[in-house]
Amino acid sequence: MAEPAGSPLCALVPQPPPASFFGAVAPGNPVVDSFEAELRDVLGFLRRLGGAGEAKPQQHDLHRRGANTLFNIWIKYKPRLPEWYYNEKLLKVGDSLAQMKEYKLALLQCYGRYLQQFVSVNLDDIIHDVHQFKSTFFPNGFRDKNAALMFHALQERNVCIYQMICSSDRNLQNEGSLQTCFNVLSSLRLAMQVALPQENFCWLIYNGTIHIYTICRHLMMRGQSAKVLEYLLWASICMESSIPLLSVHYLTWRATLYTAVSQCYFDCQAGIHGEIFARRGLIKIDELKQLENNCSSLENSETKNIFREATLKMSVMIFKRAVYESRRKPKSYFRPKLRVSLKEAQKLPWPRTTTERLLTEMFDSAPAQFLAILEALSDSSRHVLCPAPPVPDEIEIRDVISELFFAGLEILSGGVSSTGIQGSHCTNHFGTINVSSTLLQLVLTGEKGVSGHAAVKYIKLAFSYEEWDVFDSAIEFVLNFLQAQDDPTWKKAEMELKLLTLMQPLLFPRKFKHGFSISETNTEEARMPHGSEKKQTFRKGSLKHGEPSNDLMILATTVFSCVSRSKQVFHSNLFSS
Matching InterPro entries, A to Z (predicted)? Predict the structure, then answer.
């Protein structure tokens, strides 16, 4: 006889036995082994898929198959595995997916699935209420065995949300993307606030500061410094408030956070607060150093470098304001018309100017001095393709900027006497540019010279400030260095600088020394003869002095943006240059 329609056939099928039926939940248990093998297979499939590079439609279909397989694994094994084992696997698989940059899958299939077991409300609705947060996620307190898993799931959920925003709106141009980033920051801060009194959760505090810093750096690049300041301050205070994180081991990271806070103040045109916070950081570093000296009479080289790096970061932020403020005069102060000629000063021994004397007093090496110069010249309100002279009306401030570029050119050229603001180019020697180290690494190892990234940054700053003599003196020197490198990173930097050189006549028709012709196979430098017909025809077009064609500006800005865009969202930080 046929079975009646709607009869529960599944009830007649025996359910497979749970893992506990076969003994301990450990390797060797057939349910555990089968579960682990299926997870390995699907993760391996997704990992291979990520690096395969098939056509998009096919890739989407294969990815959907992998996601469905993972979904079915969770459904299949949930009733057969103990809750503690199942939950641990949810988060471990989520971590593996996040490492593969499968953030959406990690969020929906792992972290979200874990949290849905305990929470029925919208998580974003409770990011501002600490009491509701505690009662929702930690009803049994923080000694509960699931507390660490819950903190981990909450934190990684936030990271995945942020990374998904970066994938869909890399430049955070949509208001919704910005708001989501701030919601993520608030959620991270709330979790850290709850965990801070518990020393055993110091790992959560440390990781939380890293995530907050990463997101805030991204937002600072989008002009959101005023809004992210509170989160960077919070991250800094958390590092100071967690006893395990006060050790020397974490000092480098703490100094990085201090630096970010100071830079944020400078972005908000509150330089005095940036300097005050840097001086405060210097005091904290000195306190730790004294404590370390009291505890141990021996100081190894690694510890010395940690303190040296942290001190350098704070000193650079102090210099950023001090170099200007030390030269400001009261408005009623009589300014003499006679000023020191930098062209004449280049014949003098270092230090030649007031700025160079301050550099010598505060920093004991050329890489450290160059780092201070770059930071003092950096201004978040400036854009490379919108060059403009220094804004302040004070003659002294303009003098300081010129002196900073003057000092930077001397360091970049290695002190070669033939290289000066008006002098000949040092095109045959670029041993002062280090291809593999950052400025900080050069300082700590005691090497001379500057890093390649710092040299490129210096050229861009000269272009931004309309320091054309400095730009012309350094561009060929740096381009020769870049052309000698094979790494794609340096080829990208080379193309950026060539684009800037091509933009010179568009922005300011003037005597320029470089031109570049682009062939089908490569880009070659071609020096245009002075007064060439091509150049003269170009100048006689619709471009007026200081008013480049809007269409050309849009084109140049777009091309420069495409070339400059990095594959990673990591943020304009001179200390990694």
Answer: CFAP54
User: What are the distances in angstroms from CA 370 to CA 88, 275, 386, 401, 476?
Assistant: 49, 19, 24, 14, 19
Distance CA 479, CA 201 (A): 49
The domain total for the chain is 2
Which token pair is 433? 């540019």
- Residue 111 has a CB neighbour count (10 Å cut-off) of 28
Residues 320 and 69: their CA atoms lie apart, in Å, by 55
Alpha helices in 100-174 (DSSP H): 103-106, 112-116, 130-137, 147-168
Q: Work out the angle at residue 211's Cα, subtended by the Cα atoms of residues 208 and 217, and round it to the nearest 5 degrees.
A: 135
Report phi then psi at 525, rounded to 5: -80, 135
CB atoms within 10 A of CB 401: 20
Residue type, 551: D
Burial (CB count within 10 angstroms: exposed 0-12, middle 13-18, buried 19+), residue 537:
exposed
Q: Which of 162, 214, 166, 170 is nearest to 570 (CA)?
A: 214
* Domain range for 451: 348-576
Backbone angles phi and psi of 172, in degrees to 5 = 50, 50
For 138, half-sphere exposure in the C-beta direction (CA atoms, 13 angstrom radius) is 20
Is the domain of 390 the same as that of 353?
Answer: yes
How many residues would you count in the chain? 577
What secondary structure letter does DSSP report for 44?
A: H
Same domain for 460 and 412, yes or no, is: yes
Two tokens, residue 338: 């006679």
CA distances from 463 to 117, 371, 403, 414 (A): 56, 18, 16, 21
Residue 139 CA: distances (Å) to CA of 118, 131, 135, 143:
10, 11, 5, 11
Residue-wise DSSP of 234-276:
HHHHHHHH-GGGGSGGGHHHHHHHHHHHHHHHHHTT-HHHHHH
Judge whether 171 lies within some domain: no
* DSSP summary character for residue 297: S
Note whether 383 and 513 are same-domain residues.
Answer: yes
Considering only CA atoms, which of 116, 96, 124 is closest in space to residue 36?
A: 96
Helices 301-325 and 251-267 sit at what angle, rounded to 10 degrees? 10
The CA R_g of the chain, rounded to the nearest whole Å, is 29
Strands 523-525 and 516-518: antiparallel
Is 103 part of any domain?
Answer: no
Closest CA to 236 of 259, 270, 203, 265: 259
- Shared domain for 401 and 471, answered yes or no, is yes
Helix axes 175-195 and 225-241, enclosed angle (nearest 10): 20
Average pLDDT of adjacent 10-residue blocks, the chain of 577 residues: 49 69 79 91 89 67 89 91 93 95 95 88 79 88 89 96 94 93 95 93 96 97 95 97 94 97 96 96 95 76 92 96 84 54 75 92 93 94 79 78 93 59 42 84 89 93 91 90 88 88 74 43 38 37 49 65 53 64
